[in-house]
Amino acid sequence: MKAVIIGAGMGGTSAAIALRQLGHEVEVYEQVTENRPVGAAISVWSNGVKCLNHLGLEAETAALGGIVDSMSYVDAFTGETMCRFSMAPLIDEVGQRPYPIARADLQLMLMNAFGHDEIRFGKKMVAVHDGPEHATVEFADGSTAHGDIVIAADGARSLARDYVLGRIVERRYAGYVNFNGLVPIDEEIGPATEWTTYVGDSRRVSVMPVADNRFYFFFDVTMSEGAPFERGTARDVLAEEFAAWAPGVQKLIRALDPETTNRVEILDTDPFHTWVKGRVALLGDAAHNTTPDIGQGGCSAMEDAIALQFAFRDHADDPHAALAAYERSRTERAADLVLRARKRCDVTHGKDPEATAAWYEELRSEDGTNVIRGIVGNIVGGPLT
Ligand code: FAD
């Protein structure tokens, strides 16, 4: 069987490795001309790490991952710790440590595991079609590719999604903008092995460690969609938005590099349950674009890749049956994660200010049990749990 994969993000590359593990021929096409991931880092929760381990990347992943031994919530204005608890109960329960990883490192690891030089960069898909013998992709340069299957891992603005669903899918603005980047670890901002989150005023500021003594940081700022922003001005914007916040946040604002700080408007899509049209299937954000509020979008994309492998393992000679099995195994789980993230997003960002205030109160008496229960609920339910 030959699989054509569109998109060399974490979904597409994971799927490429997973299908090749079964011995299939795999071609990967990517529109950009070089690996330049958008965003500084992501938290790969235990379910995502299990997927990477399954793809043979256990040692590499552990080497790139930051060690998070504890979590804490801090009052935005006083700097007082609202709660702090160990991650050990979570790791014990799910059997795998999560790892925050710099995006560029994660992306390069996956690309190298497939074969960086084999990825066909600079190939922008402009159309995809199902067919009786094979599916076809057309590229902007006029060339085409054929496969027994086409896996469209073409991200949140997926073109293939509109083809598979037969309609244009609108994305929904979630109400906030996320600024993110990397800074050297600084214990005045947060402890080196802790995921620290400052909360207040329906906003949050977080730091967590990744490899090479760096913190991945992000600021969530509620604002209207399309607010003007000039690249390079992140420090000024954040200094103004967070002027009244605790000293650790001020230190972070001074430490960040405004030239490399990313600014992302956060959107998601309503879940849908048709991911397959004939020999064409959606995977990753193309199928389930979520807000990052529970850190599961990329993990879910990697779960898709493993589920796809299992479907082709079980239906080796029948692409239609395999893709149907893939779709059946994934849509409910992925939809659940999108909706869980949306709910978390609303509480964190003050959709109902009373609910947000009640959450802050809960955090002051939290011993970790509730937070960890929630995270375990996100982690469990994929193909490897
Ligand atoms: P992408 O990573 O978007 O990759 C799609 C690829 O397809 C791109 O390389 C693109 O160039 C290519 N492409 C698109 N169109 C075409 C075309 N027409 N032709 C050829 N190539 C094409 N997830 C987590 O698990 N944990 C987190 O902590 C986390 N934090 C996040 C924080 C933020 C601020 C955001 C925005 C997202 C976060 N996510 C997180 C989500 C995660 O980034 C995505 O779910 C993940 O990148 C999806 O991978 P993907 O391969 O499906 O899509």
TrEMBL record:
InterPro entries: FAD-bd, FAD-dep_Monooxygenase_BioMet, FAD/NAD-bd_sf, HpxO. It comes from the Bacteria. Belongs to the FAD-dependent urate hydroxylase family. Its cofactor is FAD. Keywords: FAD, Flavoprotein, Monooxygenase, NAD, Oxidoreductase, Purine metabolism. Its EC number is 1.14.13.113. One of its GO terms (biological process) is purine nucleobase metabolic process. Gene3D superfamilies: FAD/NAD(P)-binding domain. NCBIfam families: urate_HpxO (NF033623). It holds the Pfam family FAD_binding_3. It comes from Gordonia terrae. One of its GO terms (molecular function) is FAD binding. Residues 2-339 form the FAD-binding domain. Signal peptide: none annotated. Pathway: Purine metabolism; urate degradation. This is FAD-dependent urate hydroxylase. The lineage of its organism: Bacteria, Bacillati, Actinomycetota, Actinomycetes, Mycobacteriales. It catalyses: urate + NADH + O2 + H(+) = 5-hydroxyisourate + NAD(+) + H2O.
